[in-house]
Amino acid sequence: MLRTVADANRRLRPSSHPRGDRDRGGVGRDGELLTRGWSVDEAAGERLAEARRRLATYWGDPILIRGERYEFGRCSCLVAGDFDGIAAWTAAGPKTAELVAINAFTSRRGVGTALLTALAVRLRPGFGRLRLGTTNDDLDALRFYQRRGFRLDAIRPGAVAEARRLKPSIPELGDYGIPIRDEIDLVLDL
Fold first, then answer.
1. Given a cut of 90, is residue 180 above it in pLDDT?
2. Whole-angstrom distance, CA of residue 133 vs CA of residue 154
3. Alpha-carbon span 51 to 84, nearest angstrom
4. d(Cα 47, Cα 18) in Å, to the nearest integer?
5. Measured between alpha carbons, how far is 36 from 54 in angstroms, rounded to an integer?
6. What would the pLDDT profile of 80-100 be if each residue is shown by its tens digit?
7. Quick check: 85 and 102 in contact, CB under 8 A?
8. What is this structure's pTM?
């Protein structure tokens, strides 16, 4: 069981990060979690409203995962820096949290890793695993999550066709010109 921010960083850090092992995290003066040089806090009040608005603008609202609708207005959010990244999550059952969306608006600077690290630390006391869904075309996401300790949990062939009936804005083609057809679940044991 991981007990500290440093342990979480080691578990979630890719093995060949350009910044090496320098910044393993800690707690800032105001109690916010510091990870990989990023200040990550649980959004509240106006900051929470703004995080939800930005995610809804980027992704559309609601998000469909496994045929379930997840509305950002019902999600908790972590924010890195000055909205350099946002992670939205919600409880999805006993001991399972669902990562509904994660965006690193500042790319390739450790924002996504900082958000996942902070989320794992935040969830660990009440949850046993973090689950997320992605699609078959998102090779970058599949690489990102697996390098940070997630494992494949389920593949639902053809599931995107049903989601597209409920949310017609889902495109036919995704990253690298790959047809978007299947949903893939990944999980991280906390």
1. yes
2. 9
3. 11
4. 31
5. 23
6. 999 999 999 999 988 999 999
7. yes
8. 0.79
Strand locations in the chain (E): 26-27, 33-35, 38-42, 63-65, 68-70, 76-80, 85-93, 96-104, 129-135, 151-156, 183-189
Question: DSSP assignment of 80-115, as one string?
Answer: ETTTTEEEEEEEEETTEEEEEEEEESSTTSSHHHHH
Residue type, 89: W
Q: Taking the domains of the chain in order of start, what are their residue ranges?
A: 5-189
Q: Which residue has the tokens 């669902």?
A: 98
Task: Say if residue 57 is exposed, middle or buried (CB neighbours under 10 Å; 0-12, 13-18, 19+).
Answer: exposed
Contact 156, 66 (CB under 8 A): yes
CATH superfamily for domain 5-189: Gcn5-related N-acetyltransferase (GNAT) (3.40.630.30)
Indicate the residue type of 32.
E
* Rounded Cα–Cα distance for residues 137 and 30 (Å): 40
Contacts of 71 (CB under 8 A, 6+ apart): 61, 62, 63
- Radius of gyration of the chain measured on its C-alpha atoms: 16
